[in-house]
């Protein structure tokens, strides 16, 4: 009663062609994000780059192109750990206030005053 609607001569066989792996964005992020985390000493950014590095390492067998000459996944994880350690470096070596300490302005004023007094004394002698 129902006719066969599919004609055999119009049927084409499916041939799967895999897509070339594109991991350039992942390589860029996992290579440069730890440097940004180190310069900014940002803890959240360094944790994020560690997780991205671990994810890149776990996906490497699936998306790695044989002609790709980027650094290995272990190196990216090591670099992320260095960034993490750098961001927590202030816990090991705490700073007191700013660059020169809490009384940097007063100390600088006293040093300038002493230098001026000693220069005046040497000039008058």
TrEMBL record:
A Pfam family recorded for this sequence: ASTER
Keywords: Membrane, Transmembrane, Transmembrane helix
Localization annotation: Membrane
UniProt keyword annotation of ATP-binding present: no
Primary localization: membrane
GO biological process: protein insertion into ER membrane
InterPro entries: ASTER (IPR005351)
Cellular component annotations (GO), alphabetically ordered: endoplasmic reticulum membrane
Molecular functions (GO terms): protein folding chaperone
Membrane-spanning ranges: 74-93
Domain of life: Eukaryota
Official protein name in the record: Protein Asterix
Lineage: Eukaryota, Fungi, Dikarya, Ascomycota, Saccharomycotina
